[in-house]
């Protein structure tokens, strides 16, 4: 999973990137215009941590998410200050939005909806240019005759995609068939990518997330989550026992960064299944709805090619009973075929022959 971070200067975007990836990138004030950074975040999962404590493996490997942080868009300078091409190959976008007052910013009042619209407009314009260029090339190719797939592509771009962009709307809001979606993948349109809105609030608003989200237009609020980057920075510096006490004082069950990472998973329709043993306890990331043979292929292609059966048990059952042997004796360790759909939290061992 690869997620690109967007945001206006002073939104807290790079601070969030540093917290998520344990990086030390300078904030926008000190960054070169063309400087982008990539970092990896470990996805917190209490289930996997409990399995680690149970098996005491030699190696522990949680799921990860890769983040790409590009410099913030400078208002009034347009895409010249925002290298959007660096985000073409990400799976989703995460826009960090300022929801706090900053005396260094001329604007006296934070306006999250306007900031979101400013970034979205730049994405729409970038996609519009790309689509227009492709339509122009197809028009040139039409002189020699278009292949059937090129004809379908031209019709899709001219009839659906270009009008959507010309209206200032993102492609992700269109209802597309599976064939249309496959046709568009090669373009890596920015506005076709899922978007998560992260509202960076002041400390006093951290416990009132629903109220902050409720101020956004309805089409944005469904994909919004609230954090407070300065508070998260304080939490990250504390020992685990002190973190719990601090979170209780704030009325939070967990650090907001954990919710950001889980929301990223949900946005892309991803789940985790686990493999366990004395050698390694590990989380594997697959799309929701992935059949067992394909899930095995995420571990190694030989498993998919020579798949026989998958031994599966729910992590809750294993944690409750304490061992795979106890789960087998209780009839909870099941043999599943290649078409079994892997569930979030499944523990799987794959039998295969190559």
How would you characterize this protein structure?
31% of the residues are buried. The protein has a domain of 64 residues: Ubiquitin-like (UB roll) (Roll). A six-stranded mixed sheet has the order 2-4-1-5-6-7, with helices on both faces. The protein contains 14 helices and twelve strands. By secondary structure, the chain is of the alpha/beta class. The mean pLDDT is 86.
Keywords:
354 residues; alpha/beta; Ubiquitin-like (UB roll); six-stranded mixed sheet; 14 helices; 12 strands; 40% helix
Structure summarized in a few sentences:
The protein is built from 14 helices and 12 strands. It is an alpha/beta fold and 354 residues long. The protein has a domain at 289-352: Ubiquitin-like (UB roll).
CATH architecture label name of the domain at 289-352: Roll
- The whole-number mean of residue pLDDT values reads 86
Rg from Cα: 23 Å
Ends apart, CA distance between termini: 29 Å
Query: Which class do the helix and strand fractions yield?
Result: alpha/beta
Shape: flat
CATH homology superfamily name of the domain at 289-352: Beta-grasp domain
């Amino acid at each position: 999973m690869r997620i690109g971070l967007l945001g206006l200067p002073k939104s807290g975007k790079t601070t969030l990137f540093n917290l998520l990836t344990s990086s030390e990138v300078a904030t926008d004030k000190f960054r070169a215009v063309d400087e982008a950074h990539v970092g990896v975040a470990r996805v917190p999962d209490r289930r996997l941590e409990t399995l680690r404590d149970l098996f005491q493996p030699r190696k522990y490997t949680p799921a990860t998410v890769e983040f790409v942080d590009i410099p913030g868009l400078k208002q009034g300078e347009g895409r010249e200050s925002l290298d959007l091409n660096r985000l073409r190959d990400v799976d989703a976008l995460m826009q960090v939005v300022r929801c706090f007052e900053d005396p260094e910013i001329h604007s006296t009042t934070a306006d999250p909806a306007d900031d979101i619209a400013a970034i979205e407009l730049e994405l729409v314009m970038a996609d519009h240019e790309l689509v227009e260029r492709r339509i122009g090339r197809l028009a040139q190719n039409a002189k020699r005759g278009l292949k059937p797939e090129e004809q379908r592509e031209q019709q899709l771009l001219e009839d659906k995609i270009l009008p959507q962009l010309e209206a200032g709307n993102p492609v992700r809001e269109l209802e597309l068939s599976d064939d249309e979606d496959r046709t568009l993948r090669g373009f890596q349109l920015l506005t076709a990518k899922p978007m998560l809105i992260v509202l960076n609030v002041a400390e006093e608003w951290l416990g009132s997330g629903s109220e902050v989200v409720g101020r956004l237009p309805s089409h944005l609020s469904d994909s919004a989550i609230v954090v407070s980057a300065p508070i998260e920075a304080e939490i990250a510096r504390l020992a685990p026992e002190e973190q719990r006490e601090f979170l209780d004082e704030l009325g939070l069950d967990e650090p907001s960064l954990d919710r950001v990472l889980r929301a990223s998973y949900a946005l892309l329709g991803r789940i985790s299944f686990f493999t366990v043993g004395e050698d390694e306890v590990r989380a594997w990331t697959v799309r929701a709805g992935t059949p067992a043979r394909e899930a095995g292929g995420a571990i190694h292609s030989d498993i998919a090619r020579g798949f026989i059966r998958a031994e599966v048990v729910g992590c809750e059952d294993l944690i409750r009973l304490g061992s795979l042997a106890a789960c087998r004796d209780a009839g909870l360790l099941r043999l599943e075929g290649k078409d079994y759909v892997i569930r979030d939290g499944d523990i799987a061992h794959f039998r295969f022959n190559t």
